[in-house]
Amino acid sequence: MDMVEDLINSENCCDLSIISPVYNEQKNLNELYERIKKVLPAHLKWELLLIDDGSRDLTQQVIREICSRDKRVCGIFLSRNYGHQIALTAGYDAAKGRIVISLDGDLQHPPEVIPQILSLWEQGYDIVYARRKIDHKKVGWFKGITSRLFYRIMRKVFRVNLVEDVADFRLMTRKVVEHFLKYRESTRFLRGIVGDLGFKYAIVDYNQDIRRSGETKYNLRKMIGFALNGITSFSNAPLRVSTIIGLIISSFSIIYAAWIMYYKVVYGVVSGLASIMVGIFFIGGVQLISIGILGEYIANIFTEVKRRPLYCISDIVGKEEKDISNRDHRLSGKAYSSRA
Ligand code: UDP
Ligand code: MG
Q1: Interval between CA 241 and ligand 2 midpoint (Å)
Q2: What is the DSSP string of 243-255?
């Protein structure tokens, strides 16, 4: 616990940390910074952490520029592209504020919602989610429907603790963040982790904006991967489903075999290559699905047992080089294997 106390007592500590993962967002960053600056109440001491997830455009340069203009801004450059969820984790690791707000860097999470979020925090909530009202015209019907379906299935079928339709735009108090940081799995599904933590939460609704510039980094393949990770890292239900389907099918085949024997005894003939083929394909399919499900979990175990660091930081700029990063256990190489 000394690490926690250390953090909280540290003189670097500010009231509010805003963290934003960015990947090729050069055109959005300045506006993001300006809009955040405009909405934050003057009495709050805040820091803005921009986590560059291995961008290949001028994002890093833009971050450096903003940092040189404003001492409250800090850029954390990851050594390569690790993905949204890991970049966000790096932000939580580095954030020192008594409250931490995360939002996407593409302006789809409007900073103008922050005052409402803060007022709910003042009412005593530990987590405040900002929930987008999905406007199918704006996000595209495909994304709208699949993301809605995803939350429903996660909750209802797989019983994952998840607040419906909330993305990674939320406030967490230091208390919650410290618990959150103890979850160090490599295959991360942050919304699931935060849902799993419990605590008293509130929700603010907002209208989702369209992406200002650049493209979504979640294509269909990534979305499927994201959904599978979400399910397999929070639910064992698929394993059970395959067992149950297997049981049903094998009992069915026993009844079927009995029926064939009866047929043979009474009528003397049993016909049909077709029925055999159907049976073979069916069973084969079920077996492949079951093996696939097992594989997903084994792959998860495999990545977890390696206990690799979640990410590597190549450079830190601004916020006094993130409050002299080597004083911070989390950002220094030795104590910090990014697994706490
Ligand atoms: N992002 C990231 N690393 C990635 C992909 C995305 O840090 O590999 C950032 C991205 O810059 C944005 C946020 O994560 O700020 C959400 O990504 P995106 O807008 O592509 O997702 P969507 O809103 O379409 O779900
Ligand atoms: Mg987006």
Answers
A1: 33
A2: HHHHHHHHHHHHH
